[in-house]
Amino acid sequence: MPELPEVETTRRGIAPHIEGREVSEVIVRQPRLRVPVPVDLGERLVGARIGTLSRRAKYLLMPLSSGDSVGADPAGDTLAGGTLLWHLGMSGSLRIVRVGELPRKHDHIDVVLDGGAILRYHDPRRFGFVDWLADSPERDPRLARLGPEPLSDAFDGERLFVLSRGRRVAVKPFLMDNAVVVGVGNIYASEALFMAGIDPRRAAGRISRERFDRLAAAAREVLAAAITQGGTTLRDFVGGTGEPGYFKQRLNVYGRHGQPCRRCGAELRLITLGQRASVYCSLCQT
Question: What secondary structure letter does DSSP report for 124?
Fold first, then answer.
């Protein structure tokens, strides 16, 4: 599943090709995604100009300008500008292709831009979606209750320590809670806990402030490194230019159960926490 580094890699890859461009055509080959594709998507987008692409957690937000070139609603009023909300789901990807490049199987949506580029959405499992937000994105219930971004100043060890007091939940699912901090999914939570030397099974409420400081720093470090490497490709993910992510080569624990720990040589163990597989070193993580 694409996590924050993969989504950020996608944003950085496609932004230079779409920002400031006008939408000339929208082609929907498969409308039955996790959220059905809005039936009037083409009417809303054609003639609109794309603004600055941003990311919130694992969502991509694509603002589009208002104007007379955007289609009219049934009452005859010109539609206001809005925002396209993209989510890559488990196997989705957004990439830039040139006009004339034939679609592959599972290429569900094309947003054709002036200048000859196409933003193409590919999703074999169809768990991702694109939705239209006419109102401010901050008011959308999918975004309104999200915690801070892990690479922002709002995320630190103090926040983890304060929110964890009295919590019996294991620290790994606590770190993966989007109300605590967004975008620290299974891969990067496993890696951050290893870097911080914390057993993923330990109750969040029993971890000291000092150790949470280390964990917050580790989470920031591993996410920043993954973004630099273009994310982690385990199966389906490719970035905006079609390239896989290379952070897989730097994984210390995720997907390495039964193999020796890179730090101490002990065999890495596999457990299940919060219905997710978790790999850790019983000697290095306490």
Answer: S
